[in-house]
Structures are given as structure tokens and as C-alpha cells.
Request: fold
Amino acid sequence: MSRHSPDPAELERQLRRCLALMRMAPLDFVLRVQAGELLIALGDIPRGVRVLRSCADYFTLAGFPIRALWALKLLELHGADARVVDRGLNLLAEHYARTPNRDWGDPIFEMPLRQRDHVALDGLPDSLDEVVAEVDRRATDIIRGVTFPDRLPRFPLLSELPRDTFLTVVRSMRLRRMENGQPLVREGEAGEAVFIVIVGRVAVTKRRAEGDVVRLAELGDGDIFGEMALVTASPRVATVTAEGPVDVFELPRTVLERLGRDASELQSALSRQVCDRMLANLFNLSPIFRAVPPDERGAILSRFQSRLVEEEEVIIQEGETGRGLYIVLDGLVQVTRRRDGRRHDLDWLREGDVLGEISLLRRSPATATCTASRRTLLMFLPTEDFEEMARRHPETLRALSELSEHRLLNSLYTLA
Reply:
């Protein structure tokens, strides 16, 4: 990814270096995107636009939808004809929006070009015109040596959407170009967007109670972060910072307003993305689920259903028969119980906490009411699936039994 100097001599040097790398790695299309931007920066806009358009077509047909949208957003950024961009977006929707009976393939990964501190420029044409002509020829050839997959992979999040909704969302996505050290989100701030890394690396960090900052993860090409902002509007739980130049897509919360009634489809896709990742973490960390062997977790995870509940919505009603096990993924749940005609506060449940286990284990009506104190994302495992899990993995049943006994004792002390 290049951030270009306005100096013509430096731009020419970068273009020559790009051509030398293209000769070494003729199928590296990220280099071709860089070449297209360099041509535009040098003032050869028609050639630069043609290169970026060729890259967008290749990425679309070869199974790289995020990069296809990247090339189209760069065309938009550099003032290409709106009809060129619209054609590319419609081609992307044709191949990656939800359609009946579409058989998706696995994600496709490229072999990255090895980083080189020094690239020899010997053997390149002497004149700039010849360099430009060779770059143009190489960068617009999307057929030679290329194979296209029989089944395309999904576009993360967006392949759950029908064509019209897909197009509304991709048109709303913003390209953001970050430099080293720039924060994309800050811990504690209100979340207003979800992000997809296109090219580059970002670091995820969190400040601990002791005051020091701990590094949680590193994210790269194709990774998604910040989804919870569009699901529950929770504050950011970590800071994400660019490590070197990074291009990302930003999908703002305002797109939900633009979608109107169709927003539920995008929220459902976001919820599923969040739930799958958080449940996987929960199975690794929770003493209740850790006993499930890793090769069996996928089958159990697939039986959980995501549920988004609004503030003041009752999740479990005291006295009613329990319907299954709930896990709080994000939000806050108040647990109350009525006694002597008055409501008593028993507990507050947060991320990772389970509810509904007492009714399940005792096969009795719920002993308390659980109410969302703010918008809350839950995972729900129906009773029959819970019973099968308990039969196959009795360790989870024992851990839940200990938790339920503790909660019953705690409620007795609280009411006393």
C-alpha cells in the first residue's frame, strides 16, 4: 500500500520499484493496485483508472471480494466516472449477494510477496514512457496465468444479504487510510462503526485495572472488528491501532437507518459473526464448557441461537417453565425475585454469565426473573439440545450444578 509523495522524481522511483516487483511476482494483484495509484499520482489518470478497474474485475472473479471493493473505492476516491464504479459494484453483487441455492466455497488465500528492503532496478527501461507502458500492460492482463475458482467464497457479513441490501451496504462503506500509530477505535468510546481490514496490520490493546496496557491480538487482511457497535451500541472494550500503513473499510451505524426495515438482515449477520467468535472464546475459557473436546465444539456451537433483546425486555419470568440455557455475550441483565409482594434485587449478569440453568437442572419453574437492563445480545440453547450436551459431556452438568447451588444460596442470603 503506498502513500505517495507529490515529488515527481520520487513517484517515478516508486513506479520503477513497483515494476521490478511485478516482474518478480506477476500474479501479485496488490502490486497492481499500487501501480494504478502511482499512475494516477503521476497524472496518467486514464491508465491508472484502467488498471484499478482491471484489478476490481480480477478480484471479483477470483474470489477476493474485499479487495474488489477496495479497488472500486479507490476508483471512487480518485474521481473515476461513477458509471465505472457502479458497474463494478453491480458485478460484485451479482457474484456475492445472497441468492437461492448458491453453493459457497472456502476462503481463498494468496501467498504474500516476501518483503524486500532492496529491489534492484537494473534492466528496467530507461524512459518513463516505456516504464508506464509496461506497467499498464502487466497490470491490466487479468487472464494470463490466472485460474478462477469454481465456487466463490462468501463476502464476510455481506453474503447474508439480498442484492438490493448488499448494494446499499457496499455503497455506504467508507475507505479509511491510516498511518502507523493512528487509532481506529479507542477503549471506552461509543461505538459508531464496524471495520474490515483490507491490507495492513492493526494491534488490539486494553488497559488493565493496574494501569498498564496489554496487547490482546493482532488483526490483518480480511479481519473484522467493532461489530458489537452495530448490534448493542456498547462502548468499545479495547483500542485498535494501525501498525504501519493500513487500509480499512468503515461501515457506519447510519447504514442501519438507511436500510430501514431491511436493517434486521445486516444486524442478524453481525450478531452471528459476534456470537460465533465470542462463543468460541467462551468454550476455551469457561469452566462450564471447557470440558467439551475441541473437535465436538462446532456441533454444539451450531445449535446455539442468537437473540437480541431490548432494554426492559424480560428474558426469563419467575414461575414460568424454563425454555433453555442463555449466555450473555454483551449487555447487562438484572436478576430479581418477588417476596412478600415486593421485588428484591438478587444479582447482575454480564458478559460470559449463564442464566436459566436452575430451572433446567431442577426441571422446575424459574426461581427468578431476568430482565435486560440495556440492549443485550444473548445466545440460547434450547432444552432438548442442552439435555443432549449434558448426556454427552456430564462435566458441563456438574459445573452448572455447582453454579446453580451457589446462586440459590446467594439468593437465600440476599432475601434474608
About this structure: The CA atoms of residues 306 and 379 lie 5 Å apart.
